[in-house]
Predict the 3D structure of the following.
Amino acid sequence: MLDRPSTIQSLSGWTTIEPIEECRKMLHNNAFVVHHALAGHPLFTVEALAKVAEEAAKRKDDLYWDAGNLSITDKWGAVPKPDMTIREVIDRIETAGAWMVMKHVEVDPRYKAVLDEFDAFVREIAGPEGSKLLSNTEMLVFITSPNRKTPYHFDAEVNFLTQIQGSKDIWVCPPHDRTVTTEDELERYYAVTTGAGNYKPEAERTARKFVLRPGEAIHLPVHGAHWLQNHNDVSVGLALNLEFPKWMYADIYRANYFMRRMGLKPRPPGGSKIVDRSKAAAIGALRQVRSIVKR
């Protein structure tokens, strides 16, 4: 009898539910849930994070917050930033209708240690070859008011959305379904704006709904459109991200954007390795020239 493939568990309680071989197949292709032991961790209480937010505010572009009602079709920035201090927003988080994100929290060594354990966990799922494609691990922290919605969007990062406090519903679309996320949207995402994704009725029909509770994290595949609805409590969550190299998607889609503007019909990534490498090399060379000119 064959042994059942094993799950894996990290020192901080990161645990796969399905066998690691199944998780490796789903990585970058499908949403799946894992467990962690960060719920109730003293680094992620609202009070501890209030101090983290004040530090993030001292760094350029590392803190964002707003307050107001949003629908899943809205874009980032659709509601104004409230006329309150960071501490006031957090003190009123239960009633403010607010959403706050702190970026690069790992500059604090205590949070970096947590992030390193996550990084090791994901790399074990990815395996030796898959791990070579992953870099720039980072941590974003979210504090969100009860019942607040997060609008429809997709991301370029390899993302594990991690629930620490409170609970929420999340809908995740298949990342390769081009009726939901079109080639034009992907090209514009990389070349123009990260808000390029537009909600469509097809998203409702193709999305899988998950309920995310403390102690759970969900893998959101790159380009997998998703939206969220908080439940009745204040939510604390993390986005734990890694990045693919630019030549894998970003530079190809940037090249395709410019080619489409010239009236051409470029192939999506994956159609031809030679063509993909040529596009990525061209964009990489252009980026290098611009860097030299800026000096």
